[in-house]
Specification:
single chain, about 650 residues, alpha+beta, Ubiquitin-like (UB roll), Threonyl-tRNA Synthetase, Chain A, domain 2, BirA Bifunctional Protein, domain 2, 8-stranded mixed sheet, 5-stranded mixed sheet, RNA-binding
Length: about 650
RNA sequence: GCCAGCGUAGCUCAGGGGUAGAGCAACGGUUUCGUAAACCGUAGGCCAAGGGUUCAAAUCCCUUCGCUGGCUCCA
């Protein structure tokens, strides 16, 4: 029997018999690894451990700690879900059942049977019962004809439809227990590592994601090798629920919605407005430093502005409809973007190459008619404010400008406590270059320069082909919040289209007309979405400089109200935001109310404090800090009260 | 926009054909208090809106609006 060479992740090479399986290799390394191994990567392809390896390969064995291991684990769990469903609901038809970032789902057609919470519990129990049987996931090559015959007999029309698109010779089945599914794998060796199961929710999903097709029932679930891990995950979900910005926004009186105003149109309450304006102030200051010129443009624009920009053609009918005036035929649109207005500002006068880059910044409120089902708290709304800016520059300035914007974005993230972030470089689809506007050479250059700019700033990036906008490549920032969830925030986009459509030009050193490149950028993205993410990230405990109410002054009884008012006045003179709780309540009650509304500082004043001209400082969540003079208090926390630099 | 579930007091929620309920908040009193909820009382509702079934509807049915979870879309 011939031998093959297996390269391990550490670079060492093992010679094994041709046809050795991943499991055997794992066992040859250690029993522990063999016990925990879930799948194997062979030359970059994730496979079953039980598949023989028949050529030289570099491999990597995946356990629960690897994405590839979880992927196989959850994929197998989806099959287990299907097996349980088939046992409990005979005649159920199956769509697809893939693993996802957190768990897996299976789309099923229950023939119109209702499926509720109790059913989920029933199915969970069946899954656990089946998992205990320790059935192996068995892979089997089948011919297309046999596969179609199998599902025809079984009566699974969706699987037959999937089979139509597959080439004969590439089709595999996986079987565990009494359940056989069309599947390319990979799977874990047996069902027994699946020790903890939770079916999370049920939702409708169109067959193959097309709204013209039948709606199937999608069952979401998650599984773990240990009960404890499931419990931790459920705790995390609970914590996420507690931090939900819609809940905290209501409790902390930051924003509200009104049916009369309209869905998806947030109302910023006084406290939310403080928060928002502090963020704006912070950004304004950073932008002035970075050489931006603030501008202001109206909330509406003539229809022809958007005809020129191309937005009317692309989004006109799916958007807020034109506003009419008493003048016949006159139409205005609510602005869905700020860039057309900024292009017109650029065109106010002729520009020289020496003027560039020109950076126009505006907190511009835009209106987009999102589909009703898509609205969600502050993260998906129909009216929102972008911390928008457009940089008009020469092609040779793109990279430098990109670097500057990256610096600004990172400054924002770190100032707000988002220290884990990644970026996605969105490039053209090389197979489909005609989909994009702009010269090939410019694209090549911009794509290269974006990547270089990101690299120079040490950004962790993932390049994704085919994700660019049709008008230019972009760099999107993703932050990881305190619960480990990823959010897409800021974006930087190169645009060749608008300068062309608006016929923007500048006079070069050669005395010829040239077309500037435009860079759209928004570090926050939208204030609304950013505030939502921030609320959930810090659970409503904002950094002091952002906190709507920084200090609560709490007199112990009404006898000390006068001194308390004095204290508050002094604070206000130093631009510290605070309020006086002079209600006829006991101090314990006042403290509790301040604690639950997450006020960072409580200054308690009673007989002692009045006598010594001091305040007793209590920190939110940390308790009594002892007494200090007001001056000392202000001095001690001055830096935290102020905007970060 | 599509599918499913949900809409009861300012908030959190009970009640599921026969007089509309609780806690917190609000308001009025009493109390003047030292680090997470004082006590007593009062008021508060077209049970999302509209239509139907019924002797009788918050409750059952239909429509509309809104919210939630997904799907689709996202300049």
């Amino acid at each position: 029997m011939s031998e093959i060479k297996i390269t391990l992740p550490d670079g060492s090479v093992k010679a094994v018999a041709n046809g050795t399986t991943g499991y055997e290799i794992a066992r040859s390394i250690s029993e522990g690894l063999a016990r925990n191994a879930l799948s194997i990567e062979v030359n970059g392809e994730i496979r079953d451990l039980s598949r023989p390896i028949s050529a030289d390969a570099s491999i990597r064995i995946f356990t629960w700690n690897d994405k590839g291991g979880k992927y196989a684990f959850w994929h197998s769990s989806a099959h287990l879900l299907a097996e349980a469903l088939e046992a409990l609901y005979p005649g159920v038809k199956f769509g697809i059942g893939p693993p996802i970032e957190n768990g897996f789902y299976y789309d099923v057609d229950l023939n119109g049977q209702p499926f509720g919470e109790e059913d989920l519990v029933k199915v969970e129990q069946k899954m656990l019962e089946l998992a205990k049987t320790n059935s192996a996931f068995v892979r089997k090559d089948v011919s297309k004809a046999d596969a179609i015959r199998f599902f025809t007999e079984k009566g699974d029309p969706y699987k037959i439809e999937l089979l139509q698109d597959l080439a004969d010779g590439t089709i595999t089945f996986y079987q565990q227990g009494n359940f056989t599914d069309l599947c390319r794998g990979p799977h874990i060796p047996t069902t027994s590592p699946i020790k903890a199961v939770k079916l999370l929710n049920v939702a409708g999903a169109y067959w193959r994601g097309n709204e013209k097709n039948k709606m199937l029932t999608r069952i979401y679930g998650i599984t773990f090798p240990k009960q404890k891990e499931l419990e931790e995950y459920l705790l995390l979900l609970e914590e996420a629920k507690k931090r939900d910005h819609r809940k905290l926004g209501k409790e902390l009186e930051l924003f509200a919605f009104s049916e009369k105003v309209g869905m998806g149109l947030p109302l910023w309450l006084p406290k939310g407005t403080v928060l928002r304006e502090r963020l704006e102030q912070f950004m304004r200051r950073a932008q002035v430093k970075a050489g931006y010129d603030p501008v202001v443009t109206p909330h509406i624009g003539g229809k022809s502005l958007y005809v020129t920009s191309g937005h009317y053609e692309k989004y006109g009918k799916d958007s807020f409809q034109p506003i009419h005036t008493p003048d016949e035929g006159e139409e205005f649109l609510l602005k869905p973007m700020n860039c057309p207005h900024h292009c017109e500002i650029y065109k106010v006068k002729p520009r020289s190459y020496k003027d560039l880059p020109i950076r126009l910044a505006e907190f511009g409120t835009v209106y987009r008619y999102e589909q009703s089902g898509e609205l969600h708290g502050l993260t998906r709304v129909r009216g929102f404010t972008q911390d928008d800016a457009h940089i008009f520059c020469r092609p040779d300035q793109v990279k430098e400008e990109f670097i500057k914007v990256i610096d600004l974005v990172l400054h924002v993230f770190t100032s707000l406590g988002f220290d884990q972030y990644t970026a996605q470089v969105s490039l053209r689809d090389p197979e489909n270059k005609q989909k994009y506007i702009g010269e090939d050479a410019l694209w090549d250059r911009a794509e290269r320069e974006i990547q270089e700019a990101a690299d120079e700033r040490g950004l962790k990036t993932v390049a994704v082909k085919g994700e660019a906008a049709f008008y230019g490549p972009k760099l999107d920032f993703m932050v990881r919040d305190a619960l480990g969830r990823s959010w897409q925030l800021g974006t930087i986009q190169v645009d060749y289209q608008l300068p062309q459509r608006f016929e923007l030009e500048y006079i070069g050193s050669d005395n010829q007309k040239h077309r500037p490149v435009m860079i759209h950028r928004a570090p926050f993205g939208s204030l609304e979405r950013f505030v939502a993410v921030l609320i959930e990230h810090c659970a409503g405990n904002f950094p002091l400089w952002l906190s709507p109410e920084q200090v609560a002054v709490l007199p112990i009884s009404e006898k000390f109200n006068t001194y308390a008012q004095e204290v508050l006045n002094v604070l206000k003179e130093s631009d510290i935001r605070g309020f006086l709780d002079d209600r006829d309540e006991k101090i314990g009650r006042k403290i509790r109310d301040a604690e639950v509304t997450k006020v960072p500082f409580m200054l308690i004043v009673g007989e002692k404090e009045v006598a010594e001209r001091k305040v007793a400082v209590r920190l939110h969540g940390k308790g009594d800090q002892g007494s200090v003079s007001l001056d000392e208090f202000a001095r001690q926390y001055a830096r935290e009260f102020a905007l970060p630099v």
